[in-house]
From TrEMBL:
Pfam families: Glyoxalase (PF00903). This is VOC family protein. InterPro entries: Glyas_Bleomycin-R_OHBP_Dase, Glyas_Fos-R_dOase_dom, VOC_core. Residues 5-131 form the VOC domain.
Amino acid sequence: MEQFKPFHLAFPINDIEETRKFYGDLLGCEIGRSTDKWIDFNFFGHQLSAHVKPEELAQAHANQVDGKYVPVRHFGAILPWAEWHELADKLKENAIDFIIEPYIRFQGEVGEQATMFFLDPAGNALEFKSFQDPSQIFAK
């Protein structure tokens, strides 16, 4: 795989403190710089900037993928297989309300992957996925 190249994503939130707890405490993201209007996180090696801007939050639409309704607007991370399962267990223990429960998508097909979807406190949809075979990430 190519050399890791981190991305930056800015997204709207309602509240700094609930966002800090969700991304920092629950997901284990290191907290970077912050003010009363925004907060940065190390999101599995990528830079997320959460900005207090409730008027920018919108109900996402969904498309059907593998028989499930996937929120069109979402972001997340691709984790190593064991780390994905650890996160899924932690989220279940913390009673996260999943949009799509953790499961194996495209089982036995090209692109087979573990996936799960849930919302952050502001209603932003997150997807975490994993591939036992990383060469399948971009497989056709």
